[in-house]
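Why do we care about 3D structure at all? Because function follows from shape, and shape follows, mostly, from sequence. That is the central idea of this module. The next example makes it concrete: a single protein chain, its amino acid sequence, and then its structure expressed as tokens.
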Amino acid sequence: MVAILLSIHKKYSDLILLGQKTIEVRRTAIKKNPSIALIYSTNSKRIVGAIKIIQIIRCDRDSFFKSYSEQTCLTKHDYETYLENCEMVTGIVFGNLIKQLDLKLSDLCIKNAPQSFMYVDKCSIILDSLNDSDEDIECAERIKTQNF
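And the structure:
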């Protein structure tokens, strides 16, 4: 299973955990197919959640904003400022929150937070941290077997 660790400002990580921000924008293409996003809140310096990734979208900047601006929770100004001199945009479409977390980077043997994102292969720690409820076990099993 491939997971991705995303560095996100607290304002946006809170909106992701609440299910209000369902698409995260990146300037850089994501080349692997991650099935889980680990949300690293830059303010708290903690991994605050694990969330299912439904899809990765890659398209031009103007088309992306017209189609997905509401789901990104970004103002036009913030969007344009972030993507200055960038023609193509990557959108990470989130599904259901798997689990709220409170982990240090060192819990995943990571020394430094990524500038934007990094691939993580030590996701078993996250799955092991799920509660033993039937719903969580079922969710974890689906995540282990799905290919995106």
